[in-house]
Each structure stands twice: as C-alpha cells, then as structure tokens.
Amino acid sequence: MNKAFNKYGLPLLIVIIGGWLIRLLNQYLNNGVILTVIIALLLFAFGISIQPKRRYKTWLKKLLIAFIFIYLILFDLGYFRFRFLVQVFDWLAIEQLEFNLLYLFLGWLFFD
Fold first, then answer.
1. Mean per-residue pLDDT, 22-34
2. CA-to-CA distance for 70 and 78, rounded, in angstroms?
3. Are 36 and 76 in contact, with CB atoms under 8 Å apart?
4. Most CB atoms closer than 10 Å: which of 30, 31, 84, 100?
C-alpha cells in the first residue's frame, strides 16, 4: 500500500493540491512573483515525487541543481538576465512551457 501510494498517489496528490492552490492564489493575489515561485516549487516537487529511485546522496549535484533552479526562477521573473543566455533561450525558442518542463526535470534529476 505504501509503495503504491508513493508511486501513484503522491504525484496525483501534488497535482490535485497544486492545481487547487494555484487557482485559489490566482483569485486572491495579483502578484505574479508569488504565483511563479509556487508553480516552480510545485513542478519541482512533482518531479521529485515521480523519481522512483533515490540512490545518490551527493551534495554537490544537489547544490548545483538548486542553484540552477533558483537562477531559472529569477530569470523567469526577469531579475537576472544575462545577454548570452537570453540569446541562447531565444535561439532555442524556450518559452514558459519549456521553463515549466525544466523545473519538472530538475526535480526529477534531484534524486537521480
């Protein structure tokens, strides 16, 4: 039961509660910063929950992923934009959907 919940129930619970929380905050908050950060954190948590193995406990990889995650949030909010990285993202046509997929991928990669 516990293994089935961790594999199927926890990701589904994150999606349901996350969708409810985003809808609730979208009605009452006009601040896009808080909503963007919460969406990124929910996608990261969903990525962690779908990772079936938690084998490596290396702190350097987790620290690097955390720095990349924080930088992508700040880049998405428009705070830190390096010209070279903006050109690369424009060339690769990375938009909001791709940022959301990157947040999800970083969450999945956190325990890989």
1. 83
2. 12
3. yes
4. 100
